[in-house]
Write a structure and sequence with these properties.
By secondary structure, the protein is an alpha/beta fold. It has 18 helices and 19 strands. The chain has helices at residues 6-18, 24-42, 61-75, 92-104, 115-124, 143-154, 199-205, 217-222, 263-274, 286-290, 325-337, 346-358, 377-386, 393-402, 408-415, 450-462, 469-491, 496-512, and strands spanning 2-3, 53-57, 81-85, 107-110, 127-131, 158-162, 185-189, 207-211, 227-230, 251-255, 279-284, 295-296, 299-303, 314-317, 341-344, 371-374, 418-421, 426-429, 435-438. The longest helix is centred in the last third of the chain and has 23 residues, at 469-491. The two termini are 22 Å apart.
């Protein structure tokens, strides 16, 4: 699904009115009625007609949508519904919707009125609908609005954001310390907005439900997407041919491991085998090689020989490998011989060192990138500074957590590799400007070794016939998330080793479908 900026959505709204002769009030009516129906269907078991519903309306269109929702709820017999106006002076549509609500018999409160009554309404509410401020907000909420949001966040109520949590703003996250509604559910109108999907913004949005508004389909189809949003179950691993055998499914080389961290490359190798690689070799230092069985669960163990990278279909470099000068020399030799691969963990630090030393980019194949770089946020911070994309870690941290789309494409272009930012929600950026976001929010996946497992899947997907690098990264991230969900449903929290079993199940099942 498309993700758009607030500016693009405003343009769609304006075109619907000016070019398609659709009155704004009609769109507001559709938005509010559909939002209420979606919420009611989603929370049918959590609410009844005795619940106290508080619809908080600001001056803009979000406020108007909230007022339509209030009227829809009241009309269906939710007599505990009340309206709270943020200000006494409002835009034309909010004033009109307020009069309609009053005509229906809804109780309408105002922040500028009886404060004890307002505070009691917030405190007593079972559900609070947040329509205070939308994507048009620039910077932080003003003090009065911020105080209202604090009261809402402190309440026991289920919190439902209309389009976007108030205070989250438009295309740039507000300044540090901003007060923002912590929503349990966000009812995104027509298309979800970009600020919802930063690592910090996603924490505040809760469950995102997309609500159709009624814009002409042509306007939606032509709208410029800032990114594409995928649920893991929407991305299916391509079918493996029934006659495929081990060489047909590809030979992956994993290079990593050092004393005390040799578990990481083994996890990566086992994950690659479980996700469909036909052959997996693991290249280890002499010290580790000497105490490792020659065949470990079907993984072929080899001594370090960077030239061997030319004999395989893809490589994974870095899990548990270390980051000294000797490793940098080996990294350089592997890059010279490998046709494609994944750079993970310690390999990411080595990549930054290698790029600075060589002043170049990762080698491509037939004019396109064949590399996937898989940093977690801490590794991405270091890489951004190393590449000169940010002045320091503090600046990189601010951008990465609140506006990663401003940083990751440049990082991808500089590396000549697809960047996969691993977090509770995954961002995937290519040197060509493609940007995809895969839903996550599975805390069970936040376990040691989970990233090594993902690197192995990425390496396997790179070997699939005719699969572009960006698509390989998307497939890998989605498979990792699906397996994590399956494992959590059956086990609760799990180890990375236990996750590998579910990688195999999900990979085979998805390909069979």
């Amino acid at each position: 699904m498309k993700i758009v900026t607030g500016g693009v959505m405003s343009c769609i709204d304006r075109q619907a009115s000016e070019n398609c002769a659709i009155p704004g009030l009609l769109l507001m009516e559709d938005a509010g009625q559909n939002a209420w129906r979606n919420f009611r269907a989603l929370c049918r078991e959590k609410i009844d007609k005795e619940c106290k519903l508080l619809f908080v309306a600001g001056k803009g269109n979000n406020g108007g949508d909230a007022l339509v929702m209030a009227r829809a709820a009241f009309s269906e017999g939710y007599t505990g519904a009340k309206v709270l106006l943020f200000a006494s002076e409002n835009g034309e549509s909010v004033r009109l919707q307020t009069k309609i609500c009053e005509g229906y018999g809804l109780e309408v409160l105002c922040m500028e009125g009886d404060k004890p009554t307002v505070l009691a309404a917030i405190s007593e509410a079972d559900v609070i609908f947040d329509g205070i401020a939308g994507t048009g907000l620039k910077g932080a909420l003003r003090p009065t609005a911020a105080e209202l949001v604090r009261r809402i966040n402190e309440s026991r109520a289920l919190k439902v954001a209309v389009d976007i949590p108030s205070g989250l703003g438009d295309d740039a996250f507000p300044i540090a310390g901003s007060v923002i509604v912590r929503a349990d559910i966000t009812l995104a109108m027509e298309l979800p907005k970009l600020p919802l999907f930063s690592p910090e913004g996603r924490k505040l949005a809760g469950r995102i439900v997309v609500v159709p508004v009624g814009f002409p389909p042509g306007l939606i189809a032509e709208a410029e997407a800032a990114a594409e949003w995928f649920l893991p179950e929407e991305v299916q691993v391509p079918e493996v041919a029934p006659w495929a055998y081990k060489n047909r499914r590809g030979h992956l080389l994993v290079i990593g491991g050092a004393p005390c961290t040799d578990g990481a490359p083994f996890l990566c190798a086992m994950s690659a085998a479980s996700s469909g690689a036909g052959l997996v070799s693991l290249m280890l230092d002499d010290e580790i090689f000497a105490r490792t069985p020659p065949d470990r669960s079907g993984i072929m163990i080899r001594r370090v020989d960077p030239k061997f990278a030319a004999s395989v279909d893809s490589v994974v470099i870095g899990p548990g490998w270390g980051r000294n000068e000797a490793r940098l020399a080996a990294f350089d030799a592997v890059i010279e011989h490998a046709a494609s691969g994944v750079i993970d963990a310690d390999g990411i630090t080595l990549l930054g060192m290698w790029l600075n030393k060589n002043g170049g980019r990762l080698p491509g194949k037939d004019g396109s990138t064949r590399w996937i770089v898989t940093p977690h946020p801490g590794e991405a911070l270091g890489l951004a500074v190393s590449l000169g994309l940010c002045r320091d870690i503090e600046e990189a941290h601010s951008i990465l957590l609140t506006r990663p789309w401003e940083l990751l494409p440049s990082m991808a272009e500089r590396c000549n590799g697809v960047i996969v930012l691993k977090s509770h929600i995954s961002h995937i950026a290519s040197p060509e400007g493609e940007y995809e976001i895969v839903e996550g929010n599975n805390p069970a996946l936040g376990t040691g070794g989970s990233g090594d497992v993902l690197a192995g899947i990425c390496g396997t997907m790179l070997m699939r016939d005719e699969m572009e690098t960006q698509e390989a990264a998307l497939q890998a991230v989605a498979l990792h998330q699906r397996a994590g969900k399956h494992a959590a449903e059956e086990r609760g929290f799990f180890t990375a080793g236990q996750l590998i079993e579910y990688i195999g199940i999900e990979s085979y099942r998805s390909a069979a479908e």
